[in-house]
C-alpha cells in the first residue's frame, strides 16, 4: 500500500508533486460523464511520466490481433477504446520558456478532485531556470449537464517579474494509443478550420469510420476584465489553435476560459457534425464557465442525493466509498443502450474499454439500487441486442446451437485472443443469465423477461446443453476444459462454479418458461414458435439438471473448485513470504498454475450469487477453506469476500476486505493504478456496504435488510431505490433507522421481522 493522498470526506487531495506518482494520479483524478472521459493530464503538457488519455464512449478501433501462435477461432482483432483529440491542451510560455513542471521547481502543489461538485482543480508555483516565478491555477470539468462539453479555467500570475506570457489553446489530433499492437495511429484528419478565438478539428477512425468533431472557443481575462489580445492562428497537419501574447505585471492574474464541444457520428450525421459542434459550443460559451460550474455542482448534488453513502468515524472508508461512487457515476449514465462499462472506464487504455462479465456480475446491482430502473435495464438490453452476435460466436467455435457471449467485446463480437480466456472462460454466459434474474428479482419487471430476457436465457441454456458431455465413467454430465473465474488455473475439468451456474441457468430458464405459460399463455405460444423451443430440449435440460456432476470433498464439507484441486500442494497465503506477493509479479506462470493459490472468488463467487440456495454452514465451510488460499490479485475478489464475511458475521474479515476493495486505487494496492482505475470492482465496493454490512436482499418480492456495523464505524447510512421507493437506511451499533419518504407504505423485513413503513422508524438492536 502506498498512501500519498490526503484523507478528506469529499475530495481526493494530492499536496505535493512527485513524478513517480503522476500516472497513478492521472488515473485517480480522471473526469468523465458517461459520454467522454479525461485522465488528469496537465493542460500545459508534461515531459515526465504521463499517459495521455482522452476517451469518447463507444469510439473504438479493431486493432489487428497480435498472437504468438494462431489458434483457429481466435478473433481477427481486439477492439480498443481510442485515445481521442486532445482538447485540454493550453501551451504556456513564460517569456520564451515553455512551462513544463518536469523542467522547473514546483512548490505549493495541490491537485484536488472535488467529488461533491464534479471538477478537477490544480494549483502550484513554478520557479523557472530564469528565476521567474509563476502561480498557476486550473479548474476543469466535463459537463454532466451538457454531455458534449468540457470547460477549463486556467490562470497564470507572475509572482516576481513583469513580462511576456504566451498561451496557446489548441486541439490536437496527433494522438495514439499506448496500447497499439502495431504502433499504428488509428485516426486520420478530415478537416480543420481555425479562426481568431476558435478552432475546429474533425478526425475519422480508420476501419470503423467514426467521426469526431472537436470545437473550441475561449476568452481571456486580466484580473477580472475581459481583454482583447494580439492573436495568431496556428494550423499544423493535425493540430489547430491560436497563440495569444500578453504583457503581465507582477501579481496581475490572467485567465483563459477554454470551452470545447466534442460531437461524434455515433449521434449525428457526418455532414452536420461541425455545425452541431459549433451550436453546442456557442451555447456553452454564452452560458459561461461559472454558470456551467454551478449547473455541474447542482447536477452532482442530485446524483449524490440518490447514491451517497455516509460513514462516520472512519475517514479513510468514507473518502473511499465516495470515490468509488463518483467514478461509477462518471463512467456510466445509462442513457445509451449501445454503451457498457469497461473495467477501467475512462481512466486508462487497459482492457480496451471493452465489456467483460464484470458488468453483469458486479455493476448491475449498483445501478439497480442507485438509479432509475431503465439504467440497469439498458445494460441488459445491450446484451439482448448482441444476442445474434453471441450466436454467431458459438457457431464460429463449432456449436450447432445456442449463444456464447464473448469474454471481451465492444460490438458483440469476441475480441480477446488468449485461448484460456476466449475459449475457456465460458462462465461469463452464466453471469449474463444471472443479471437477468437479478434485475427481475429486484425490480419485479416481468415484462422484461417476456420481451427480451427469455430469448437470451433460452440461447444460453442451449449453449450449456451442447457444451456439457455425458461421462460414462461417472454416469453424470461433466463440463471439461474450462477456466473458472480463477484465472490462475486453466483447462480444468468440472469447475464447480461453471457446472453450477450452467445448471442454475437451465433451471431458471425452465422456471421462466413455466411462469410465462401460466400467466400469459398466448405469449407463451408465440415464444415457443418464435424461439422454436422443443419439448425434447427442455427435457434434456432437466436431465442435465438432475445428473450434473459436482466435485466435492465430503470430509471437509466443501465444493471442490475443480477435479483434482486437492491433489495440489495445500499451502495458505499467510505462509508465503510477503516478498512473493503479488504472485503474478514474482512467480513464473508455470509456478502459479501448479499452485493452489486462487486469483479471485471462484467457488465463493457461486455461493455469493446463489446464497439464497445454500445454508450458512455450507457457505462458512467453503469460505474458511478458500479465503486463506486466495491472493485477491483480481480487483473483483475482495468485495465478494467482504460480503460473504458479513453474512457469516466475520466482522473483522469483512472490514479488512472492505478497506482493501474500496481503497484499491486510492492506495494503489495492487501497484497497477497507473494503467487506470478498477471501475467495475468499485461497484463491488458499493455492494460490500449495501449487501454486505447492510444485508440487502430481495426475496419473494420483499425487501430484506440485516444490517450490522463494523466496530471501526460510528454510523453508516445508504440510500436505495426500490420499485418506486427511495429508502434511506441509517445504522449505528444500537439502532437501525429506515426512512421511506414516499406516500406509499413499504413492506420490509429487517433482521427477520416484518415492518410496514411510512415515514421513519427506528429499530433498536
Ligand atoms: C479478472 C477477470 C475480469 C478482468 C477485467 C481479470 O483480472 O480475472 O475476472 O473480468 O480482469 O476486470
Number-wise, the strands total 32
Q: Ranges with pLDDT <50 over ≥5 residues? A: none
Please give the largest β-sheet: 10 strands, antiparallel
> What's the alpha carbon Rg, rounded to whole Å?
27 Å
The whole-number mean of residue pLDDT values reads 96
The percent range for helix content is 25-40%
Shape: globular
**Protein structure class:** alpha+beta
Ligands, ions, cofactors: beta-D-glucopyranose
N- to C-terminal distance: 36 Å
Count of individual helical segments: 20
Strand content: 25-35%
Comma- or semicolon-separated keywords:
33% helix, 32 strands, binds beta-D-glucopyranose, 10-stranded antiparallel sheet, 5-stranded antiparallel sheet, alpha+beta, 765 residues, 20 helices
Compile the SSE list and pairings:
Blueprint: E1 11-14, H1 19-28, E2 31-32, E3 36-38, E4 54-64, E5 77-83, E6 90-94, E7 97-98, E8 105-114, E9 119-127, E10 133-142, E11 149-158, E12 163-172, E13 187-195, E14 198-205, E15 211-222, E16 225-226, E17 230-235, E18 239-248, E19 254-264, H2 273-287, H3 289-307, E20 309-312, H4 315-331, H5 358-370, H6 373-385, H7 387-396, H8 419-422, H9 428-443, H10 446-467, E21 469-471, E22 476-478, H11 496-519, H12 521-531, H13 535-547, E23 552-553, E24 558-559, H14 583-586, H15 589-594, H16 603-609, H17 616-626, H18 637-647, H19 651-662, H20 679-693, E25 697-699, E26 702-705, E27 715-722, E28 725-732, E29 735-740, E30 746-750, E31 753-757, E32 759-764
Parallel strand pairs: 26-30
Antiparallel strand pairs: 1-8, 2-3, 3-4, 4-5, 6-7, 6-12, 8-9, 9-10, 10-11, 11-19, 12-18, 13-14, 14-15, 15-16, 15-19, 17-18, 20-27, 21-22, 23-24, 25-26, 27-28, 28-29, 29-32, 30-31
Beta-D-glucopyranose binds at residues 343, 351, 356-358, 485, 487, 599-600, 634, 636, 680.
